[in-house]
Design goal:
The structure holds 2 protein chains of 2 kinds.
Chain A (H helix, E strand, L loop, with lengths): L7 E10 L2 E11 L4 E5 L6 H8 L7 E6 L2 E3 L4 H6 L2 E4 L11 H6 L5 E2 L2 E2 L1 H14 L16 H12 L6 E5 L7 H16 L3 E5 L3 H7 L2 E6 L2 E7 L5 H9 L4 H12 L10 E8 L3 E8 L4 E5 L6 H9 L6 E6 L2 E3 L4 H6 L2 E4 L3 H5 L6 H13 L7 H14 L16 H13 L5 E5 L7 H16 L3 E5 L3 H7 L2 E6 L2 E7 L6 H17 L10
Parallel strand pairs in A: 3-10, 3-11, 6-9, 9-10, 15-20, 15-21, 18-19, 19-20
Antiparallel strand pairs in A: 1-2, 1-4, 4-5, 7-8, 11-12, 13-14, 13-16, 16-17, 21-22
Helix pairs in contact in A: 9-16, 13-14, 13-15
Chain B lengths: L10 H7 L3 H17 L7 E2 L6 E2 L1 H24 L7 H17 L5 H29 L3 H20 L4 E2 L3 H8 L1 E2 L2 E2 H19 L2 H10 L1 H6 L4 H25 L3 E2 L8 H11 L11 H20 L7 H16 L1 H8 L19
Antiparallel strand pairs in B: 1-2, 3-6, 4-5
Helix pairs in contact in B: 2-13, 3-8, 3-11, 3-12, 3-13, 4-5, 4-6, 4-11, 5-6, 5-11, 7-11, 12-13
The chains are: A alpha/beta, B mainly alpha.
Chain lengths: 521, 357
């Protein structure tokens, strides 16, 4: 990895937004045939730097060199013409078009009589096959694919053109372990072909698995550039957050020291709730002050189950008791009345309302619960806003800023605040820590444990099994839209043991053995 | 809108922060053009006998009243990312109901009030039907209200037996032609209604809820916002306001013309809303803007007549003024004034464009 000439060299880059210096004299180098990871907390300037490189933002100061020539990026098309392609965190494809159309959009095979769709789809197939996606039918609608496959389609789309630099912004945040491995083999293949890859991820394991070099940013400034093999994790985190990780470690002891007293009557119990195509009949009980983890792969039914509990989808069968009384929870509004709150995994589409301010986003659920005719007074709304901005450490602490201008981790904190403001007895958090940085993640995890201590029943859903194991008192394991196991957390429960449970369930199916205490059929 | 970005800017820039300021500029410009043709155009005189104000400006206020009503309703409907094409037809229904009722009633205040109540109630009910079709049945707003647009005029024809109905009632006529403190009653009522609706949406949480469902219906639903209820409410309100506009339009001549009353008024209302800076994509809305937009539409109509633009060229002239206005409001042109490129103006990719629709 000692190429003399980086393909991209950014020197002294500064970008200022009204009131914020997003980047301050940042340097960055990218070498061909190398995976370079950009590390930093949310708001450290990673996205801004990427947007400077893709021509979305203009730089106020500094120079960008490609090869040995200085380039000026006036817009995204300049960057594309220079051979810089980007795949963003949230897939930016047209779900209503076919896979092939998405791959070839703008590069359709043209004849004098217009577009040759046959050839176009063939070319799409060819491009997909290069990334090991040859089995996909390019004429199928994109919406028929999982998010993970859509991500890979987005990458093959970016590889249709002559790409020298591929930027992957949080490509793994919605993928499960197998899909991540599939993505990584694609990345390695491209790297070996000499493509320079800029990778951004919050998953340290993945960063260490894939990257050759990393650049660390903090608060818009350049901390340093390191070879991955020369920087261990503890040092990396210390550089990112500017302090040691004792705070993270203390969570473990906190979880273990929590008393496991008698739980008493459940505050929520569901018998045989189900929805066709989403989740088979399942029983769930939740007690005061406990954290229940839903573990399972993506698509296992964990999100679907959470949506049924919240009434976001209507259960087709079964009955629900809250505080011992039978309730019909068929809409989110009904759930909120029963003091159940649900934070969706889809922060962008089902969480924040982009164009509203932080204040409006915070008070929305409380206000909806009260009805429009009983507005919160200025004083009440100020109290809520101030309380949760301080408590959850939302940065910047400006309630009148549009939420779309906040980083992902801070948006998530605002959402958490929105649900906490409704004073829920039951709080369902679906992937609350996805795509956010180590610091914010620790803050949210800490808050979850505090809430349980305050008596809230928390349902915690995450793809990171370590996180589920660390936080939960009880773990419900789901697979293929079924609950396959439920057990108390304890020293014998680890991420590996959950994975084994999930894997074992499949083996048992094949060999026809019984699954022991879980009689699911 | 980014309120934070207006910090530290000059007062002028803060004024131009509002999109509807261009509507105000356009109104002043049109009035100026009229004044060049006739220097006495803007003069307002007091009628010696009854103390009423008389002049072109007063005529414009009077003419703007019906547009204001439907534009305010339309503004709220559009904010929920819907549209109400039926307002013109609901105007004629309200007009037909009131004329038909007054034809057989005696000429007194009681009859006028009864006619008013009946007309507004029926318009509101038809508006509620729109709301139910959109929210409960789940039809697209465009289709639901298009159906009501066709049905409404049909209902009006059934009510009047296909005839243009005239009647006499002094009290009813006063709504459109009377004066209070020297100003036309019709304008004062319109102003009060606009203020009342403005206070209703901004002092209660209605405005926030409407914006939330217009911007992101899924997220709003998960936050517990009652989308259906709000949609029914908003379409009903739009129907009610269209009813008021219909009463205004028929009371001035005490005749309902089943094929011309309220004809194409939905277009005027949509234009007024857009000029006022409310995006057709839904979300943020601006009642003051819709008010300014209505005044501009009325000014434009009067100007076209005053300048003697031939009737065949009138639509083209109107279109020209509105296109220029929309251009001035577009993000791209606005950013030229601010001196920053659209690329630098942050994530403009996802910004909803007013002019696009």
């Amino acid at each position: 990895m000692t190429q003399a000439h980086p393909i991209i060299e950014m020197k002294g880059i500064s970008i200022t937004f009204p009131g914020v210096k997003a980047l301050d004299q940042v340097d960055f180098r990218l070498f061909p045939g190398e995976v370079h990871t950009l590390m930093g907390e949310n708001g450290a300037g990673k996205s801004t730097l990427i947007k400077a490189l893709t021509g979305v933002y203009r730089i106020d100061e500094g120079h960008i060199f490609m090869g040995s020539q200085e380039i000026r990026l006036g817009g995204t098309s300049d960057a594309q013409n220079a051979g810089i392609s980007t795949v963003y965190q949230e897939v930016n494809l047209c779900t209503n078009l076919t896979i092939g159309e998405n791959v070839m959009l703008g590069h359709e095979v043209r004849t004098p009589l217009g577009i040759n769709w046959r050839a176009t789809h063939k070319a799409a197939s060819h491009n997909l096959a290069k990334l090991g996606l040859g089995h996909l039918n390019p004429r199928a609608p994109l919406s028929s694919l999982s998010i993970a496959l859509q991500q890979l389609v987005a990458i093959s789309r970016s590889m249709v053109t002559e790409t020298k630099v591929l930027i992957l912004d949080e490509p793994t945040s919605s993928l499960d372990a197998v899909e991540v491995e599939q993505l990584f083999s694609v990345i390695r293949k491209l790297r070996d072909e000499g493509v320079a890859i800029l990778f951004v991820s919050h998953f340290l394991d993945q960063v260490y698995a894939i990257s050759d070099r990393m650049t660390v940013l903090r608060n818009g400034t350049f901390v340093g550039e390191y070879l991955t093999e020369e920087l261990n994790r503890t040092d990396l985190i210390a550089k990112m957050i500017g302090k040691d990780i004792a705070a993270l470690r203390s969570l473990d002891s906190q979880s273990a020291s929590r008393q496991r007293e008698d739980r008493g009557e459940p505050i929520y119990s569901a018998q045989g709730i189900s929805k066709k195509g989403a989740i088979d009949e399942v029983d769930i009980t939740l007690h005061k002050g406990e954290v229940v983890g839903f573990a399972g792969l993506l698509g296992s039914g964990r999100t679907e189950l959470a949506r049924l509990i919240y009434g976001a989808d209507k259960p087709e069968t079964g009955s629900v008791h809250v505080h011992g009384e039978k309730q019909d929870i068929s809409s989110p509004a009904a759930a909120l009345t029963q003091r159940i709150a649900f934070s969706s995994e889809n922060r962008r589409d089902e969480g924040i309302i982009r164009d509203l301010s932080v204040r409006e986003n915070l008070i929305l659920a409380v206000q909806a619960k009260r009805g429009w005719a009983k507005p919160l007074s200025k004083k009440e709304s100020d109290e809520i806003v101030e309380k949760y901005i301080n408590q959850l450490n939302v940065r910047p602490a400006d309630p009148d800023r549009a939420i779309k201008n906040l980083s992902g981790g801070n948006q998530q904190k605002v959402l958490l605040g929105r649900w906490l403001a409704t004073q829920p007895d039951i709080l369902i958090l679906d992937e609350p820590t996805r795509g956010i940085d180590v610091g914010a993640k620790a803050e949210i995890q800490e808050r979850v444990l505090e809430l349980a201590q305050e008596g809230v029943s928390v349902v915690f859903i995450s793809s990171e099994l370590e996180e589920v194991v660390r936080l939960s008192d009880r773990i419900v394991v789901l697979k293929d839209h079924k609950k396959i196991a439920e057990f108390e957390n304890g020293p014998q429960v680890t991420a590996e043991s959950i994975v084994t449970t999930i894997a074992q369930d499949g083996l048992d199916d094949q060999s026809g053995e019984t699954t022991g205490e879980e009689a699911e059929r | 809108m980014n309120h934070d970005s207006s910090k530290g800017m000059g007062v002028l820039k803060r004024i131009f922060h509002h999109q509807y300021i261009w509507g105000v500029v356009a109104i002043l410009l049109l009035l100026f053009i009229n004044m060049i043709k006739d220097p006495s155009y803007l003069s307002i005189t007091v009628n010696e006998t009854n103390g009423n104000l008389v002049g072109n400006l007063i005529d414009i206020l009077r003419a703007a009243a019906p547009v204001m009503m439907i534009a305010v309703g339309m503004c709220l409907v559009i904010a929920t990312s819907g549209i109400d094409l039926s307002v013109g037809s609901l105007m004629v229904v309200a007009g037909a109901v009131s004329m038909e009722f007054l034809k057989g009633a005696s000429d007194n205040l009681g009859a006028a009030l009864a006619a008013l109540g009946l007309a507004l109630a029926i318009a509101a009910v038809l508006g509620a039907v729109n709301g139910l079709l959109v929210s409960v049945v789940g039809l697209q707003p465009f289709i639901s209200t298009l159906v009501m647009m066709l049905a409404g005029r049909g209902i009006a024809k059934v009510i009047t037996g296909g005839q243009n109905t005239a009647s006499t009632n002094g009290s009813f006529r006063w709504i459109a032609n009377g004066y209070v403190v020297g100003l036309p009653v019709v304008f004062l009522i319109a102003l009060l209604v606009v203020i009342a609706v403005g206070l209703l949406v901004r002092r209660s949480a209605l405005g926030l809820m409407i914006e939330a469902i217009g911007m992101d219906p899924k997220a709003a639903r998960l936050a517990g916002v009652n989308r259906r209820g709000l949609q029914v409410l908003v379409y009903t309100l739009s129907g009610l306001l269209a009813g008021i506009a219909g009463v205004f339009a028929t009371a001035s001549v005490m005749t309902v013309d089943v094929s011309r009353t309220g004809d194409q008024m939905e277009m005027d209302a949509i234009l007024a809303v857009v000029i006022g800076g409310t995006s057709l994509a839904g979300g943020k809305f601006n009642i003051t803007g819709a008010f300014v937009g209505s005044l501009l539409i009325a000014t434009l109509d009067k100007t076209v007549v005053f300048l003697g633009v031939s009737s065949s060229a009138t639509p083209a002239f109107k279109a020209l003024v509105i296109v220029v206005l929309c251009l001035l409001q577009s993000d791209r042109i606005r950013s030229l004034f601010k001196g920053r490129s659209p690329a630098a103006a942050a994530p403009s990719v996802e910004e909803k464009e007013v002019v696009a629709a």
